[in-house]
């Protein structure tokens, strides 16, 4: 019997009726003779509401307590889905992270999965039950509750599929696949039949929240086929898989954007070895990820300016740290800017094509969009621009690279 892991996102389980509908879908697959583990997210809006409650209580909620709070969203939806399945005559069991032993590190609010003890979920499936597993949650060695970062249920599902050696991990959501860009932002976006792990990894880490980045890392590492599909429409979906010859020929396959970005600039710091290290070491110790960095040295070579980007979530904490560092280094000023965004093009075909960056910069400049920072890798180019131009930027790049046409 095939093992299938399915994951249903928040909008798919947003109401009692939708949960019943999902239960019916699971029941059909179960009755076809499959062994199924279902991972569910919290009901739509629930995680946001819980975070708001915490913020009403205190301006900087304790990270451990925040995880105890936000992990409850998934506890509600697994229980409800398991009830619905049982009502349909399907044996089912809701399972929280500590019962499946989804072990994580202790980075509260953005924990990483270290291991899943496959025996407990295997026992449930062997007993002929559907395992309804709470996404997003984990547990540390010391039995502390953690969560995996926003969108983390995708990662719970793919990690579970990996340890169960599942045939496929099906991600059910409110769009019917991975598109050339967010279909809610541009109606010319086109659904991709297949996308390579590497391209999906870039798209996700550059802001396409259809899959959490870490879920794609797991999928690639353990070679788990991931099928992104709509919960409510029966369309084909997108298969995230290994790169193959079918995928060649496309230079740019997608456009991603990320508005949850902020920029910090230190002006007039000494230009000598160890200065950058001193700033970024403290940020790293505080678990703050840095994305793009640029440094300019003044003409006389004595002073430098450094700008870098962090996620908006980390901005307040990062500013506090950098201001303190700025004082120690006698910086002329420390500036923060939360009105920036990152606009990126992604495609494995870029490896073998020249002129892609020039075309991107040219297209943006024609619209008067100023580029503040640039970073590139083999298969992506990202620009930091003013947040207010992000929609425009996505559209003009989508048109310029003709992404509405297949093979564009
Ligand atoms: P879920 O709650 O099911 O996990 P998410 O809201 O996390 O759903 O992810 C689905 C959303 O991702 C879509 O509604 C869409 O707006 C957004 N999205 C962003 N970029 C893309 C893309 N390239 N293709 C498809 N969806 C995308
Ligand atoms: N409920 C969590 C969130 O809203 C996890 C998820 O939906 O994947 O981020
Ligand atoms: Mg999601």
| Estimated share of beta-strand residues | 25-35%
Q: What integer value in Å does the Rg equal?
A: 23 Å
Work out the helix count: 13
The N- to C-terminal Cα distance equals: 40 Å
Describe this protein's structure.
The chain is an alpha/beta fold. The chain has 2 domains: 3-243, 3-Layer(aba) Sandwich (Carbamate kinase), CATH 3.40.1160.10; 244-402, VC0802-like (2-Layer Sandwich), CATH 3.30.2130. Helix content is 35%, strand content 26%. It has 13 helices and 20 strands. The protein has helices at residues 16-31, 46-57, 63-70, 72-87, 97-100, 118-126, 153-164, 197-205, 213-222, 275-285, 315-328, 356-366, 390-400, and strands spanning 3-8, 35-40, 92-95, 102-104, 113-116, 130-134, 137-139, 145-147, 168-173, 194-196, 226-230, 238-241, 254-258, 261-270, 293-297, 303-311, 333-337, 340-346, 373-377, 380-386. The strands form 5 sheets. The chain has an 8-stranded mixed sheet, with helices on both faces. A 4-stranded antiparallel sheet has the order 13-18-20-19, sandwiched between helices. β4 and β5 (113-116) form a beta hairpin. The longest helix has 16 residues, at 16-31. It starts with a strand and ends in an 8-residue tail after the last helix. The mean pLDDT is 95. Adenosine-5'-diphosphate is lined by residues 9-12, 41, 151, 173-175, 178-179, 181-184, 203, 208-210, 254.
């Amino acid at each position: 019997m095939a093992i299938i892991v399915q994951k249903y996102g928040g909008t798919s389980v947003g109401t009692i009726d939708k949960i019943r509908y999902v239960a019916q879908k699971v029941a059909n697959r179960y009755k076809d003779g499959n062994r199924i583990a279902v991972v569910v997210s919290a009901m739509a809006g629930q995680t946001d509401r819980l975070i708001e409650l915490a913020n009403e209580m205190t301006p900087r909620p304790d990270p451990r307590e925040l995880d105890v709070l936000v992990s409850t969203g998934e506890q509600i939806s697994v229980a409800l889905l398991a009830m619905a399945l049982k009502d349909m005559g399907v044996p089912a069991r809701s399972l929280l992270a500590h019962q499946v032993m989804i072990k994580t590190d202790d980075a509260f609010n953005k924990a990483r999965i270290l291991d899943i003890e496959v025996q407990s979920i295997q026992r449930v499936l062997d007993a002929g039950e559907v395992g309804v597993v709470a996404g997003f949650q984990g547990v540390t060695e010391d039995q502390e509750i953690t969560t995996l970062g926003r969108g983390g249920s995708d990662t719970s599902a793919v990690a579970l599929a990996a340890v169960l050696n599942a045939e496929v991990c099906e991600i059910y959501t409110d769009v019917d696949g991975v598109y050339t860009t967010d279909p809610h932002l541009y109606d010319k976006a086109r659904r991709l039949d297949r996308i390579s792990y590497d391209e999906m990894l870039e798209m996700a880490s550059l802001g396409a929240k259809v899959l959490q980045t870490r879920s794609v890392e797991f999928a690639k590492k353990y070679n788990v086929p991931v099928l992104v599909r709509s919960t409510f429409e029966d369309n084909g979906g997108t298969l995230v898989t290994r790169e193959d010859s079918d995928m060649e020929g496309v230079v740019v396959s997608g456009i991603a954007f990320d508005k949850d970005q902020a920029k910090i600039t230190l002006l007039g710091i000494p230009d000598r070895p160890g200065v950058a290290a001193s700033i970024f070491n403290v940020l790293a110790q505080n678990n703050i990820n840095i994305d793009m960095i640029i440094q300019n040295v003044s003409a006389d070579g004595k002073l430098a300016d450094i700008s870098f980007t962090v996620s908006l979530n980390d901005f307040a904490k990062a500013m506090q740290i950098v201001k303190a560092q700025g004082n120690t280094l006698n910086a002329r000023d420390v500036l923060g800017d939360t009105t920036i965004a990152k606009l990126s093009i992604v495609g494995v075909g870029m490896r073998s094509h020249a002129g892609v960056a020039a075309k991107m910069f040219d297209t943006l400049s024609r619209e008067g969009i100023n580029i503040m920072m640039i970073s590139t890798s083999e298969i992506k180019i990202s620009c930091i621009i003013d947040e207010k131009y992000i929609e425009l930027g996505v559209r003009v790049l989508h048109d310029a690279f003709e992404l509405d046409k297949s093979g564009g």
